[in-house]
Design goal:
The complex is a heterodimer of chains A (114) and B (112). Chain A is mostly beta strands and 114 residues long. Chain A is built from no helices and 11 strands. In chain A, strands 2, 4, 5, 6, 9, 10 and 11 form a 7-stranded mixed β-sheet that branches. In chain A, strands 1-3-8-7 form a 4-stranded antiparallel β-sheet, with no helix packed on it. Chain A is globular, with a radius of gyration of 13 Å. The N and C termini of chain B lie far apart (41 Å). Helices cover 0% and strands 52% of the residues of chain B. In chain B, the strands form 3 sheets. In chain B, strands 2, 5, 6, 10, 11 and 12 form a 6-stranded mixed β-sheet that branches. Chain B has a 4-stranded antiparallel β-sheet with strand order 3-9-8-7, with no helix packed on it. In chain B, a hairpin with a 4-residue loop joins strand 8 and strand 9. Chain B is globular. Chain B is mainly beta. Classes of the chains: A mainly beta (114), B mainly beta (112). Chains A and B meet through strand 4, strand 5 and strand 10 of A and strand 5, strand 6, strand 10 and strand 11 of B.
């Protein structure tokens, strides 16, 4: 079974631009979560989607948004990029995280904002 | 709300020595507990998890963790570490909701 796939792996953007990151979950998984990882902050929860519906959202500004498609693939978008948005963005998929199901992470998308 | 505290940001240890990585959590409801490992330039991989039942859980590569409800802890231990165990380790908690709360991570550095 293929793992969680994230694209692109690395990207550099300029302040004020926007970026879209893509995530393909493990086949059969309907839940997709997104996390931001920065040094010293650990992983911060962005949002979770299940069957195309956002079920939960973390404490991030409205510049961070996401969506999920009918095939469970997900995208997240960050508009009006700021230097502080530089981070590793991790996507994770599971059957349903509410029951303690393991969430499986992709290798992440490294975003650098200059 | 839940929170997770990993008390040590870095832990250096010599090869074949024992190690303990500490994790404490806070929650007013029952939780599921996890340890994930992250190797350089990779995503996180599940090491072990506690859902219910036996408070001692083990991984396939020799790590173990014990759920202690009274001390709200879930410390990770290994009796003899290898160079290949060098990585960052994250403790996480879930209260049966859609999100996991992660600690800030502990960098384990195994020295030859």
């Amino acid at each position: 079974k293929a793992g969680v796939t994230q694209t692109p792996r690395y990207l550099i953007k300029t302040r004020g631009q926007q970026v879209t990151l893509s995530c393909s979950p493990i086949s059969g998984h309907r839940s997709v979560s997104w996390y931001q990882q920065t040094p010293g902050q650990g992983l911060q929860f962005l949002f979770e989607y299940f069957s195309e519906t956002q079920r939960n959202k973390g404490n991030f500004p409205g510049r961070f948004s996401g969506r999920q498609f009918s095939n469970s693939r997900s995208e997240m978008n960050v508009s009006t990029l700021e230097l502080g948005d530089s981070a590793l963005y991790l996507c994770a998929s599971s059957d349903d995280p509410r029951s303690g199901d393991t969430i499986y992470f992709g290798e992440g998308s490294w975003l650098t904002v200059v | 709300a839940q929170s997770v505290t990993q008390l040590d940001s870095q832990v250096p240890v010599f090869e074949e020595a024992p190690v303990e990585l500490r994790c404490n959590y806070s929650s007013s409801v029952s939780v599921y507990l996890f340890w994930y490992v992250q190797y350089p330039n990779q995503g996180l991989q599940l090491l072990l998890k506690y859902l219910s039942g036996s408070t001692l859980v083990e991984s396939i590569n020799g790590f173990e963790a014990e759920f202690n409800k009274s001390q709200t802890s879930f410390h990770l231990r290994k009796p003899s570490v290898h160079i290949s165990d060098t990585a960052e380790y994250f403790c996480a908690v879930s209260a049966g909701t859609y999100k996991y709360i992660f600690g800030t991570g502990t960098r384990l550095k195994v020295l030859a």
